[in-house]
User: Which sequence fits this backbone?
DNA sequence: CTGAAAGCGCTTACAG
DNA sequence: CTGAAAGCGCTTACAG
């Protein structure tokens, strides 16, 4: 591998001059150096650059599960921005383990210029230590309990929960269940809080047997849905608080041959690839995904002064919308499914 | 940040001794050094280590699209192995662009100890140059035209194509379409070749209007499916050669109100999260995903001597199986859908 | 087992 | 604008 010394020798200048040329400074022998670089196929040694400069040009990205389509999309957005700006992306998966997350962050602190993190819970020490060590951190999707002091890209989970509740109320449901995500995470709490808020304002209280706390995973949602079905009086609608939760619930309803939305309406949080293909097509609360990743990376680079964008807010909260498809409908009447159902369930 | 010198001073030894201790050699002052490391929270500077050793302890992973559930799963497998072994994972996305891929590989060659690559086409120069530069490369999912000389983890695409054809033949189909992936990629070619081979052996020729070449993406599959439907004599079965292809075809059939499998049977390649939830549930050719990633990473580390595993073959080809669900059934008879249909399409 | 020293490939104040 | 020199934080033959 050619070094800067080889280039210097060939171009008849000193290594310092080559270095200056490479950093974009004006030098007299620019042409000769350019030629030498090309002929030798010179590429700077990143380890040497980073040892000298103290900067790694690498960004750590820590997510709970890259196979979750939401995080895959977010990472895609991050990758496109980081590559464009000449940063490398170090990917790490925590498998929803706070312990692994803490280890990863401690390791990464020395190896990257900044970190984008979707924390497992909102009660964590690791990110605080990170901040103390001076590594910029941007949160995505999830926040810390005292999150106000960190940069973050989030969606309006509270509003998402509210809209789901409003949608079900408008259809006439009163016996409504929710399968929430873990309450120690921001999306888990806020989606539930928004949902409850609207129900309560409408004078509907959600009894404990309908207010179920899951973990954002499919298996638990499956089990909880079976529990809902075994109630003396099952709900007429379920709000599932994440894409995997929705899958678990749909599988349970499917296995138990429950008619959606004839017997039970379902509204999910996060669209699925196959959302429009399901029968009935799935009604969901939808949010930007790739865009969140793009913004998070830009926010982080902004901290380094590598992003020209002026006045990016330190916390970005994106809007959320409902996609009404066919899995929600008015509740069944006393003598069976509401007649409106057939019309909606094409 | 504490350096090895700080630790040495505190422990009353030389930096060389600290370095030896950290590398696992026996030293007299082990206890004092351990204490100093803990007290100072010392972590070695990777840039310095890598500058000195010439090794980066980083692996480059280059995939066409991280939001494709197949690649997300593969990357998850890779990440778990690399973290376990103390390697960092650098993720890059090519967006199916051979040009971007070439750039990425050239950059990475200097920055990583090895690369795992899902190449965009089988006719590429970049990986060959990589090999010349001495960086170990392992292919995953896709191969080069002269691939025999590279390590690789693949699935038996030929067999996958064959099994899909056998399944459709066994159901009685004779007018059968396939929407292939790009023929410049190994999976695109082999899946098609296996499929055609079995049809031909059965005396069925696939006319050009049923032998459609897509690009593994959803949009093109959607358009090609519409074309199939506009034929004077549409097929009674379609084999879609990838997960996204399947989505495009299902959406087209759905939009055109085609009854699956009453009018047309569909068998896909790669299962979908929602495969069992679709109505009808989707019949697919299924293959290991996370496991492919795990094996690819182990294969690569093996090249470094970092993986104890003995005798890992240089090329691993994993088996493939069919998951029979409800989207395939016998073709409709002259007077409408086959009667068997109702029974299968629960 | 241990330490002094050289060197990995860059960058950058310093002096010219 | 340019070059000589020091130094980023490690590792490792070399000598003891």
Assistant:
């Amino acid at each position: 591998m050619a070094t800067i010394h080889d280039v210097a020798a060939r171009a008849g200048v000193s290594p310092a001059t080559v270095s200056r040329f490479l950093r974009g400074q004006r030098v007299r022998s620019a042409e000769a150096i350019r030629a030498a670089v090309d002929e030798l196929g010179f590429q700077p040694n990143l380890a040497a650059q980073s040892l000298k400069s103290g900067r790694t040009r690498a960004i750590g990205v820590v997510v709970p599960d890259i196979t979750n389509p939401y995080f895959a999309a977010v990472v895609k957005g991050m990758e496109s921005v980081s590559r464009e700006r000449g940063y490398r992306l170090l990917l790490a998966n925590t498998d929803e383990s706070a312990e692994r997350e803490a280890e990863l962050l401690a390791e990464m602190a020395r190896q990257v210029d900044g970190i984008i993190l979707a924390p497992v819970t909102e009660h964590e020490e690791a990110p605080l230590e990170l901040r103390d060590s001076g590594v910029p951190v941007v949160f995505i999707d999830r926040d810390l309990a005292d999150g106000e002091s960190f940069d973050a890209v989030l969606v309006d989970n509270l509003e998402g929960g509210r809209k789901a509740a409003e949608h079900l109320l408008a259809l006439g449901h009163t016996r409504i269940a929710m399968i929430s995500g873990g309450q120690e995470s921001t999306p888990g709490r806020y989606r539930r809080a928004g949902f409850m808020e609207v129900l309560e304002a409408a004078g509907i209280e959600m009894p404990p047997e309908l207010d179920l706390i899951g973990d954002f995973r499919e298996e638990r949602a499956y089990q909880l849905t079976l529990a809902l079905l075994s109630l003396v009086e099952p709900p007429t609608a379920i709000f599932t608080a994440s894409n995997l939760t929705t899958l678990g619930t749909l599988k349970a309803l499917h296995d138990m041959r429950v008619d959606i939305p004839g017997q039970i309406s379902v509204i999910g949080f996060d669209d699925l690839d196959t959302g429009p293909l399901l029968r009935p097509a799935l009604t969901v609360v939808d949010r930007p995904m790739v865009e969140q990743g793009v913004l998070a990376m830009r926010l982080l680079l902004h901290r380094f002064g590598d992003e020209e964008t002026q006045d990016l807010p330190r916390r970005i909260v994106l809007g959320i919308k409902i996609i009404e498809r066919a899995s929600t409908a008015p509740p069944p009447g006393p003598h069976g499914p509401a007649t409106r159902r057939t019309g909606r369930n094409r």
Notes: Chain B touches chain A through 47 residues (CB under 8 Å). Residues 157-287+322-344 of chain B form a domain with the Rossmann fold fold (CATH 3.40.50.2300). The longest helix of chain B spans residues 69-84. Chain B has three domains: 4-44, 56-155+289-317, 157-287+322-344.
